[in-house]
Fold this protein.
Amino acid sequence: MNLMTFIILILFLIAFISIMNEKFFHMQNDIALLFFSLIISLVLISAGFFSGSEVIKEKISNTGNFGFESYLMDFVLCFMLFAGASKVNMKKFRQNIKAISLLALLATIVSSAVYGFLFRLSAFLIGINMDIWTCILLGCIVSPTDPIAATGILNKLGLSKNVTSVIENESLFNDGTGVALFVFVKSIVSQNGESNFILLMLKEVLGAFGVAIAVSFILFRLLTLSGNPLNHLLISFIDVSLVYMICEHSGFSGVIASVVCGMYFSYKMDSIKRRRMVEDPHNLYIIFWEVADNIFNSVLFVMIGISVLDFTPAKKFLLLIPSGILCVILSRFAGTGISALLVGKKRIPSSYSTAEFVTLMTWSALKGGLSLALAMSTAEFLSEEIYLTVMNITYITIFFTVIVQGLTIKSGYSMIEKHKAKRIRAESEKAR
């Protein structure tokens, strides 16, 4: 399938699923795109299987083998992160910076380690031979919450601004921790030696921050020399793509750097708001990045769904489903629980109790394209059997968190809010 045909296929699926969802199903659109593209893929796989034709099976499989990892990591990820970070509420970010920092750093590390130990136990019980470091590597893949899924879905569910700020900002920053931890554990599994996680993390974070600020500072000064909003857009594109490229070639975190670029440009654009209202009365800059974010999100969710066309079930696949789901929920609960205790009850947003906050943060932890791209990158150093297990678990985690948790998070949020209201009333009556 050539590139143009593939683009037409993706855009057709987005339009078709979106229209059908708008008319009949009324699901949150990003969830609908993933869910129905998955259904379409499963129908095609079943058709290929029952046809008995190897040629048809091969064509269906090749449709799903379109270089997802390269598309996301080498092209579109930096722009999606920039767009997501551009919508960060800086006031809310500063208010919740302790919770965001602990969740982005500590919760990701704890969740990855806990997941590794839980999955090692599960693998042993169901008869899959995986060593502890490979299980922890899988934890690094599925533990970080995906910023693309979070910003694409949670913004549209009516959560409070404080809570949305914590979830979104944690999702934007914890991917840097997850990628650094992945690189560190990967070097142990593949035996090629990054020996110090703290030094690796400092290098990834500080290097990314330094490059992002330096390049963004220079390019924003260039932006202020022009009154043309198209030039503003062009410079923002150059900024995030140049920073991402420099960081990826220098061993820094391109993920974190892209987030910093987005937040820097958002902050500086606000500082020249009056001037922009004159030069850009239609707010082209903001509208463009919002539209681009929505399109990129839609393409990504459909791509995840059709990548299943190249899916191969691992041995004992049916046993992996409950194992993967339980491990990801329990490990996330442990990571956010420890982080919440360290944050302290007074610093937990929206007057939640520790249990309420941890429950919400656990159920709102959506996974997405980055997890799938990291899983795909393990093909070069894992055996075929273990690689299939890693891929199967990653798919299970993504589909469960986005479809099941994504569809129920609004109800879960309402239940937590009701519980919080009853608790506050009870505490008030007791205080009297």
User: Anything to note?
Assistant: Residues 384-431 form the longest helix (48 residues).
